[in-house]
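Follow-up to my earlier ticket, as requested here are the two runs.
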Amino acid sequence: MKDIEMCSCTFCGRPQKAAKKLIASPNGDAFICDDCIKICGDIIKEEETKVKVFKDLVLPLPKDIKKALDGYVIGQEQAKKVLSVAVFNHYKRINFNYHNKQSKKGKDDSKIALELEKSNVLMIGPTGSGKTLLVKTLARILDVPFACADATTLTEAGYVGEDVENVLLKLIQNAEGDIERAQRGIIYIDEIDKLARKSENRSLTRDVGGEGVQQALLKIIESTVASVPPQGGRKHPHQEMLQIDTTNILFICGGAFVGLDDIIHKRISTSSLGFNANIKNSQEKAKVDYSRDVQPDDLIKFGLIPEFVGRLPIITGLDNLDDKALARILVEPKNSLIKQYKQMFKIDGFEIEFDDDAIAYVSQKAIDLKTGARGIRTIMETRMLELMFDLPDANVYNKIIITRDFIENGAQPTLVKKVEENREAV
């Protein structure tokens, strides 16, 4: 055995004289100092903390999740309920399966343990109805990584476009490289209806942007260990890959599905033929409740492949937003556009106010554009740009009132001088 006074730490190289304590291995060939022992202890403690966070994931109840969503999303009550229950059950399933596996360790595996399966979600609703906002807000409430992808940019592997695995890379990046955390995240794939086959008959040519992408998405949506290029882009044989298990990733798909209501009405009207059928005007269509009325066959006739439909068992619909809902969206949410403008102008030393007629005009104009809540920002940004470019003198004015005439015709807003405001206060 070596003389310990002549030895140094095998890990950091510090000599025995510089260390408070130097501990030898049983055979005396290796040594570790007190500082390295402390560092090892901290690493182990950090890893234990990560595991504890996963095991003891505390979930708000569905009612609490919906209440939190109410602060950011106006209307869409049914969709909020469905999503609140879906995400609650998803993470409850993760906790159950984890504890179930832990309790089965070292025991007889001859009996198959009960394992709760994942239920992904399909949201059907017009553009601008709040699909992306709902999912993004859910991820923020639950404090889990979130990634959003547009299905129209995805193609099959080997074709020009974006590989479906790159969606997983976005999730890893948003989890700051923590793959364990990314494996419990949420992925939202928008415009999923654009992947539908153009007809029910299979084409002889490759459908690299439609059915082919549906096939490519099947594996990652269900449960697989995917290989992801760390820098994105195309895979090549000598590239080092990141491995990510998609078993516990919740996939939520959304789309407008224009024409799906016609397929549903046709099925319902065909099945109700007979003496007891309710005869209605052909132009009069009952409103479709997608959560209740849509059947897997309807989605297959629309152009989604049966395997893909089977992996999205939870379906909810979002309603068109009327002018009253759009007016509320402008004002009520915690991050509403008007609150954002008020904060931006406050930084420049101005108080800004929007009168009721201006709000009513913006919401009605957004209805005319037929782009839902997205139209609100388009209208507002167009007019507010000019005002922000040519701000009034902050030494003279400190309040700006936005009127309908300003939004509709580009007239000057009402400006309130500091002296006038002080006089009103007296």
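Run two:
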Amino acid sequence: MMDFKDRTVIVTGGTRGIGKAVAKAFAGAGAVVVITGRNEEQAKKVASELDGNVHGLALDISNPTSVSEFFPAAIELLGGIDILVANAGITRDKLVMATRDEDWDDVISTNLRGTFLCAREVIRPMIKKRSGRIIAITSVIGLTGNPGQGNYAASKAGVIGFVKSLAQEVASRNITVNAVAPGMIATDMSADISDQAKEAIEGRIPARRSGTPDEVAASVLFLASDSASYITGETLRVDGGLAC
């Protein structure tokens, strides 16, 4: 098991699904973790349910003021920042011709700009420490596209490009920046998909099944570990071969 004792971690969107699994894995490996959600009461409730040293705080990553106020407070609470997992994201799925301006703007603002805002806040303390890990949760949809998800695909493709650029800016300071691209993962977000649609998607996956949040979390912990110190600017697919 990987050891993250005394490491400090912030996981955005950590109250459910992949984010919760990531927070649980880090806490189980000894890290001090802050999870975020738009609702502070819910974030604190989930944090109390996880074993280990986990705190829950409110954060709206689409709101620059919320971001700029959250990170100094969270970093002070943690006593520093070693790892950021930019996981929070939303969907507003519609065909392009039916996508409203606000549907486009909300998804780009949360998924892409939110990742940028959060990463920008941790760069300076990481540079000062000359150490850090930034891991953004993107999606295979950002690599392949998908009908009805033009806004989501654009936001997640943008995250991949952002990761590649930031990785080159901070690599000399011993900071790595990578992305994890999940495929079909069994979470609350995928629970609304009909059984027929789910079967059709899984039929296209070489592994012939959906993944689990714990499998995504394992890849995040690897990229945050010392074993991945020479990996940066990479997008690691966790998709059962879907985007091969």
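The only thing I checked on run two: The radius of gyration is 17 Å. Let me know what else you need.
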